[in-house]
Amino acid sequence: MTSAPIVFVVDDDPSVRSSLEFLIGTVGLQVDSFDSAEAFLRRKPPERPSCLVLDVRLRGLSGLDFQRELSSRNIRIPIVFITGHGDIPMCARAMKAGAVEFLTKPFRDQDLLDAIRVGLERDQAMRDHDKGVTELQQRFESLTPREREVISMVASGMLNKQIAGQLGTSENTVKVHRSRAMEKMHAPSVAELVRMLEKLKDSSQTAA
Fold this sequence. Notes:
The chain is an alpha/beta fold. The chain has helices spanning 14-25, 37-41, 63-72, 88-96, 109-141, 145-155, 160-167, 171-185, 190-207, and strands at 6-10, 30-34, 50-55, 79-83, 101-104.
């Protein structure tokens, strides 16, 4: 499966789609275009770094409504808006919802290409982060219930002796659980273990 980035263009004007495809293709990027938001939604969400160049005014679902629909489906693709009829409230709404850029026609070709580059970099970083969290979650799930309990107490700042007292076990047993858990988590230090657990906690709160 290719991991080369791809740029999607959604615009109901064939001539605009054609010119955007040509422009984006000049920098070696793959382009796939659609004449409506609905057409884009019928395809499978991309599994590689991607960015969406989206016209604000479309027949059917508008660009801003499409942005909200993507969010509701948890399709997190960076969006570069283009429009010939933009205004400040429209721009503010798009940017507040996470758009990379809001370009008013006529815009410089380089401004669009720069915005696409930022979008692709943002999507790559997001995918790398998600992959890291997934790997961490898998490691955490490989721990026994007692190992999870022990590292949770370790991360809270408790000493082995205190943990042993609270769990009603020996300090040596706590050390064994702690050592095995840190090995399974690939944590070289307590500081790194704490960072990992915080990352898992943050991701679960974001998902909720």
